[in-house]
């Protein structure tokens, strides 16, 4: 697909090197179910979090190329409306993307990587997992690949601290998605990856967590490989592992949980409703981890209990895990949805259900304490 067929393109920007270390100090507020709301209602998503939709929009605006022309007297083109930003700047962004492609092709030609017929050596695409949020959880290989990229396409759940690792010469392109808002369709993302790889660029696709765990990395890998593009996957620490470790929850434990199951709370249109798997997931000797499950949790919890999972099963919901904005609700399964609502947790929130949750040092110890809200 030619570049002119894209509906719009998010902006690109240069980024400098900085290093930020995360230090989390937890405050714990344990309470009965009836008092959870009053204890946590004042807690709202921090605007400094790289994971909230509000900050995602602000980051999109910040990351724009500041286009200038004589009509604006060399002032940046800025709009307060996200949709207007994309539509107003498309005519300017598209030539810049084409210009970048041309620069990359000329660079390959000067390096002798193109034939007389104009065919250049194809570039590589790296699908890089950035972990659950804390940049210090990046692998050494991920850091090396990020620093060596020409172009990076990044998702909403990739923190600014990770983006700060990008080399000054590289370009960043936001392709994030949230419920009800997709900055790029999956097909557009595929074509962007292909176009720049065909120009010989080293392209990095940055994804939160692990690219092959609910990250659609398999779809992108399959598409590119069918086009003859070499794809390499750099695994990341998936949210289940990183967040569970942060809270001291062993996903498996001898004599308590002999298996772990990852479940998505979303279903693709026309696909199987994730709630249909509740019967198989209601295993008291297994740990259930639900990604993107806030909206479907009430129904899922009810179905799990109907299929035999005890209402007293320990559970936890973790918002923005491993970041300075982490907030956690501990509760029994029967009360988890109510306590999440009272605490006002928002996406992204990971849910862990199983007896192993009770092994966390943060689990409420008193029998009078039915729930616990923990904030970083």
TrEMBL record:
Residues 36-55 are annotated as: Disordered. Residues 125-336 form the Tetrapyrrole methylase domain. One of its GO terms (molecular function) is uroporphyrin-III C-methyltransferase activity. InterPro entries: 4pyrrol_Mease, 4pyrrol_Methylase_sf, 4pyrrole_Mease_sub1, 4pyrrole_Mease_sub2, CobA/CysG_C, Siro_Cobalamin_biosynth, Uropor_MeTrfase_CS. Residues 36-50 have a biased composition (Low complexity). Keywords: Methyltransferase, Porphyrin biosynthesis, S-adenosyl-L-methionine, Transferase. GO terms for biological process: methylation; siroheme biosynthetic process. CDD domains: SUMT. Its EC number is 2.1.1.107. Belongs to the precorrin methyltransferase family. This is uroporphyrinogen-III C-methyltransferase. It comes from Arachis duranensis (Wild peanut).
């Amino acid at each position: 697909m030619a570049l002119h067929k894209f509906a719009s393109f998010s902006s690109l920007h240069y980024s400098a090197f900085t290093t930020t270390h995360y230090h989390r100090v937890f405050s714990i507020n344990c309470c009965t179910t009836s008092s959870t709301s009053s204890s946590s209602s004042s807690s709202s998503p921090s605007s400094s979090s790289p994971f909230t939709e509000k900050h995602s929009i602000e980051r999109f605006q910040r990351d724009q190329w500041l286009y200038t022309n004589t009509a604006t007297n060399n002032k940046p083109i800025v709009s307060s409306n996200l949709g207007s930003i994309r539509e107003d700047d498309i005519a300017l962004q598209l030539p810049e993307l084409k210009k970048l492609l041309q620069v990359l092709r000329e660079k390959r030609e000067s390096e002798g990587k193109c034939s007389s017929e104009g065919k250049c050596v194809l570039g590589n695409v790296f699908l890089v997992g950035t972990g659950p949020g804390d940049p210090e959880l990046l692998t050494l290989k991920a850091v090396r690949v990020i620093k060596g990229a020409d172009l990076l396409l990044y998702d909403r759940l990739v923190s600014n601290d990770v983006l700060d690792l990008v080399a000054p010469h590289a370009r960043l392109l936001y392709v994030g998605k949230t419920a009800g808002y997709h900055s790029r369709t999956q097909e557009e993302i595929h074509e962007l990856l292909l176009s720049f790889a065909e120009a010989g660029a080293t392209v990095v696709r940055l994804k939160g967590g692990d690219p092959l765990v609910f990250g659609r990395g398999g779809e992108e890998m399959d598409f590119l490989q069918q086009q003859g593009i070499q794809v390499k996957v750099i695994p990341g620490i998936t949210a289940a592992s990183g967040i569970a470790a942060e809270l001291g929850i062993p996903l498996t434990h001898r004599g308590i949980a002999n298996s772990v199951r990852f479940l998505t709370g979303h279903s693709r249109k026309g696909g199987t409703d994730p709630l249909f798997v509740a019967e198989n997931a209601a295993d008291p000797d297994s740990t259930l981890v639900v990604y993107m499950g806030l909206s479907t949790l009430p129904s899922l919890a009810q179905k799990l209990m109907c299929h035999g999972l005890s209402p007293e099963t320990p559970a936890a919901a973790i918002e923005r895990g491993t970041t300075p904005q982490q907030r956690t609700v501990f509760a029994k399964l029967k009360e988890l949805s109510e306590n999440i609502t009272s605490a006002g947790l928002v996406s992204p929130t990971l849910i862990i259900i199983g007896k192993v949750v009770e092994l966390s040092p943060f689990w409420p110890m008193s029998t009078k304490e039915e729930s616990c809200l923990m904030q970083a």
